[in-house]
Amino acid sequence: MKKKLWMIFGPLVVAAIVLLGLLFSPFKINRINKTTERQAATSLSPNVLKGEAIKKAALSHKEYVPFFGSSEFSRFDVTHPSVLATKYDRNYQPFLMGAPGTQSLTHYFQMQSINKELTNRKAIVVISPQWFVKKGTDPKAFSFYFSTLQAANFLLTQKGTYTEQVAAKRLLSMPSGHANDQVASALQRVADGKKITKFDRFYLKNLYHMARQEDRLFSSIRLSNNDEKVEKQAKDLPAKDDSKAIEKEAIRQGKEDTTNNDFGIKNDFYKRRLSKKINKFKNFEKDFNYTESPEFADFQMVLNQFAEDHTNVMFIIPPVNEKWAKYTGLSQSMLDGFSMKIKYQLQSQGFNNIVDLSQDGAKPYFMQDTIHLGWTGWLDVDKHIQPFIKDKQPKPNYKMDNKFYSHKWQFLNPDDLSSYK
Amino acid sequence: MVSLTPYENPSYFLMLFVALLPIVIGLLAGRKFHWYETLVSFFFLLMTFGGPKWHQGLALIGYLVFEMILVTLYDRYRKQKNDTWVFVLAVLLAIAPLVVVKMTPLLAHGGNAIIGFLGISYLTFKAVQTVMELRDGTLKDYNPWFFLQFMAFFPSISSGPIDRYRRFRNDYEKVPDRDKYLGMLQKGVHYIFLGFVYKFMLSYFFGTFLLPRFEKTAMATPGLSWALVGVTYIYSMYLFFDFAGYSLFAVGTSYFMGIETPMNFKKPFLAHNIKEFWNRWHITLSFWFRDFIYMRLVFFFMKKKVFKSPKTTANVTYILNMGLMGFWHGLTWYYILYGFIHGFALVANDWWIAVKKKHPGRIPHNKFTEAFAIFMTFNFVCFTFLIFSGFLDKLLFAR
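^ inputs. structure came back:
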């Protein structure tokens, strides 16, 4: 009988021991090497945001500068920050954190694993006005970038701040917050302003351990590779890092790539995404509104985290392609209102490095498509980021205010800003 | 309080393993501890229907008590007399809770009945079947306490397979000899691991990874599109691997407990025709309908001489039988249509077999025609699954 039982359960026992060994062993099994870090910096893969091993490894080197944003990062134009930094001997390399669908809430939780690395560092944030819709971040998109590791990390590093309470509440409003019952009940305690229980801590530590090991083992396997795209673009750049010469090349490419439409939109994007339904878009966006949204509170969580980490941040507010906006009826005064409101939130709390490009949507080849920065647009951004990163900056002095979490602020009409206290 | 959906995550399987260990050791030593089995059943029911789902737990308890009292009263009555109207009343009462649960969303604009719980439709099959066997006289030594054990057998409570009272009792009371039980353990491990592949790999790949993408594209294109074709086949694969995976877990777990719960799927997509398909797909359900609806309706129609020819009798009964199955799935146009289409398909299938018999040798039969038959059956089934999925409802009416 013993032999038979071993034949049935033996493989199971062995498999279980190997799995537990892999998941709970205290050793780092595979080290993240330079090539992986390099690849991860431009891969935009969700497992980079979900995990921590790769981010931590890359950001431990000072030359990587964290770039927070969303879909614009995937447009690797000739002037894309990663391309410029690759081509020219700049003393920094962007570590891109963002992909289509990543918004403030995703960033708040994914920052939890790199707080140490963000401390006293510089960072760039590209704010998309399109995040700030009435319903806020899409739960499905959020869950795509959310991981157990982020949740465990968040819960295990509680300091008892109001921001954490807001964040826990916000997470519980998402299906992702309920994926695991124990995590959900710990989140509920945090949301109620209580400490997590001893058992929660024990459970979460094990969960964290397991998820971290999983991340170490598998995250680097499934990285998408954009190195080729970056290298290919870098080849087109002039040999010398000279903005006039780069601009010339940017304009040349912009001209060449925007021939099948009158909006200055890149040909293949227009052909693939817009041309078939072009009539539908006429005046389609006339009621779009980016000035009243729960995203303002989510964004405040990110700001608070930066303040806590003493990160010196430069914010970029990109414009919308003006010709496209006119065609779809998207209101420029609404966009102006958005810029005003977001700048108020930033400046009144001491975030003063703001590059507001919201008025530049009509500049030639500034936008690559409808809402994403393009050839001359990225170059313009570069002119601000380069000195910001290169030169020594005065220490920021942040004065955080929890009023920006209020419902009133989230849905405040920018016209009422002057009377807002 | 924790609450777990059966077979959904590693912790459930871990708990299952620990809880089953004493049962396995006992059975290897040739003993069964029924009190411990009951305890385990109760614990897992508590995990499934406790905590935030406590209202479902209450509904389950209420339902079990109601059905037990009903069946016990009918058993007592049946020992004295055998009037048809009492039998009909007993069956109607037994399905009454299910009818209420299925009707509520229709009447209350999508709201759910408070007496509903996960698995009510499967339990109803077991209860009705017990009443019918009491009526037939094939079940003589009914025991209320055992009836409860049978109904609340936790591995299959939420989605089947649907076992039979007498079959279950034989396994329940018997202790399999060691060699047989070792064989069952081996099968149990195999089924559960095959279930992992089905449910957590294939079903995930089709249902969670592919399906939403294709659905999104299909929704963006009005009417027929290649994406819709994709949805058809992807959904079919998802449905099979999800349900078959679940069934494998339930069967595997039962084997560990020394109970040979019947299999629910037998390579359904290799069926040569639609009749064979129903002998391979959701087997315990289709056999239940065969034994307790189809056979009885045919018998009834024959006895009352409602139709002249036996063929007509069979055809009408096919349609009624499958139509009823459609209604059982839920009161939406797509479930009901799905049922009736299968009913008509069974009629067409019988007709074709009759044609073939009438003209022996005229219709070729070889490897290619067999492959063609399998191909056609598969595609037909996938098409009906598209209806079943309810996606057409979203595509056509929810814009």
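The interface with chain B takes residues 1, 4-5, 7-9, 12, 181-182 of chain A (CB under 8 Å). DSSP finds 21 helices and five strands in chain A.
thumbs up if we can close this ticket
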